[in-house]
UniProtKB/TrEMBL annotation:
Note accompanying the cofactor annotation: Binds 1 zinc ion per subunit.
Single GO biological process annotation from the record: tRNA queuosine(34) biosynthetic process
One annotated GO molecular function: metal ion binding
Annotated SUPFAM superfamilies: Tetrahydrobiopterin biosynthesis enzymes-like
Cofactor: Zn(2+)
InterPro entries according to UniProt: 6-PTP_synth/QueD, 6-PTP_synth/QueD_sf
Residues noted as binding Zn(2+) in the record, renumbered to the chain: 14, 28, 30
Family of the protein in this entry: Belongs to the PTPS family. QueD subfamily.
Catalytic activity line of the entry: 7,8-dihydroneopterin 3'-triphosphate + H2O = 6-carboxy-5,6,7,8-tetrahydropterin + triphosphate + acetaldehyde + 2 H(+)
Lineage of origin: Bacteria, Pseudomonadati, Bacteroidota, Bacteroidia, Bacteroidales
Keywords in alphabetical order: Lyase, Metal-binding, Queuosine biosynthesis, Zinc
Superkingdom field: Bacteria
Name of the protein this chain belongs to: 6-carboxy-5,6,7,8-tetrahydropterin synthase
Length: 110
């Protein structure tokens, strides 16, 4: 089994829609650290699990320096973002979305 890991930082803003009062309902930003894990039993014709630049295109180029509420069709929680990223990349099995030093959400496919 081959595994590749791509780690990147994006700067983006968002506001959450919550069922309770929270300061996170106001527009605010993070320097998100996103770690994408991809794996495959076999390498593709180019000798890769996936090209690192394709991961970057699927994530950073769509989300960096954006208001996530304008880009994503769901409540932009770290958990939802992690799941969405995982669905964008066929070989992806796990995504970590860190919105601050002490707050990390992880999504893993079954």
């Amino acid at each position: 089994m081959y595994t590749v890991i791509k780690r990147m930082e994006i700067s983006a803003s968002h506001s959450l829609k919550l069922s309770y009062r929270s300061k996170c309902e106001n527009l605010h930003g993070h320097n998100w650290i996103i770690t994408v894990y991809c794996r495959s039993r076999e390498l593709n014709a180019d000798g890769m699990v996936v090209d690192f630049s394709h991961i970057k295109e699927a994530v950073k180029e769509k989300l960096d320096h954006r208001n996530l509420n304008e880009v994503l069709p769901f409540n932009s929680t770290a958990e939802n973002i992690a799941c969405w990223i995982c669905e964008q990349i066929p070989t992806c099995f796990k995504v970590e979305v860190q919105e601050s030093e002490s707050n990390v959400a992880i999504y893993e496919k079954d």
